[in-house]
Amino acid sequence: MNADRAISGQKISNLKTRFIINPRSGHAARYLPALTRFIQETGGTAVHTERPRHAYDLAVRALAEGCALIVAVGGDGTLNEVGSALVGTTATLGLVSCGSGNGLARHLGIHGSPAHAVDILRHGRPRLIDSGLADGHPFFNVAGFGFEAEIAQRFNRLPRRGFYRYLTTSAQAFRRWQPEQITIVEGNRRTPLLSFTLVVANADQYGNNARIAPGARVDDGQLDLCALPPISWRSAAPLIARLFLGKIQGGKNVTTRRGPHFVIERTSAGSLHTDGESHDAGRRIEFTVRPASLRVLGPA
User: Fold this and answer.
1) What secondary structure does DSSP assign to 100-114, as a single string?
2) Which domains does the chain carry?
3) 274-291, pLDDT tens digit by residue?
4) What value does the CA radius of gyration of the chain take, rounded to a whole number of Å?
5) What are phi and psi of 222, to 5 degrees?
6) Which terminus of the chain is more exposed, N or C, with fewer CB under 10 A?
7) What's the Cα-to-Cα distance from 48 to each of 18, 32, 59, 71, 237, rounded to whole Å?
């Protein structure tokens, strides 16, 4: 609560603030002029990332130097790295979303124009949100495996990104992708099924308003699981429509669950993604929620 009062009761110019900017993020150039003016006005400092995991290191350094507000300027990957360093601390995460999907930012009402981003930095209020762990890796928006982990891995290799490239990458991978047999374990309950992709969500969407977990909340102490069945070219269009209409839960053979903890067993090791970042994972993957573990600056 002391950190909440510090942010709410003071102007940002009275807080030690660090901006961590990912210059490779899709639309970073569009936001930089407004942010540069704002940083100069308020006396904040800015650093740029230069490599993978650099944002995490820069956030750890900012904490060590006493920064109370640390602003991630980038996409979901930048958010993940900075947020991972801030979990469980009294520092507040500011978010200027300029990536390809911006799922958590859209869910929180932070995504928008440079003017909107600056307005939140000037007048926003902090709120506590949940975070998740997937096989020990932190996530704040969504984590999963199957087709979506394959797409995340391919997408991260592209020199240029964006929604159009995400769609074309997905279409190319879809031709050869095979569903896998998995088992959802919840206490003594075991649910075997054939899954095209599986997501465990903290917020309600992947990004770009594709709502994979309609009704999910970031402050309810719960995670939302959604497993999609095998998909053909014929069944893909209705599912995609449901995804953007926020009605995926009503799709044929779509499996959904809500709870604080899931264990998923699969037939072989493979990829896992957390907020779009790829990891190697084994046959057994555990998902756990960490309630009220991260302070985020949101709209007043």
Assistant:
1) S-BHHHHHHT--S-H
2) 2-131+294-298 (3.40.50.10330), 137-291 (2.60.200.40)
3) 998 999 999 999 999 999
4) 19
5) -130, 160
6) N
7) 11, 12, 11, 12, 40
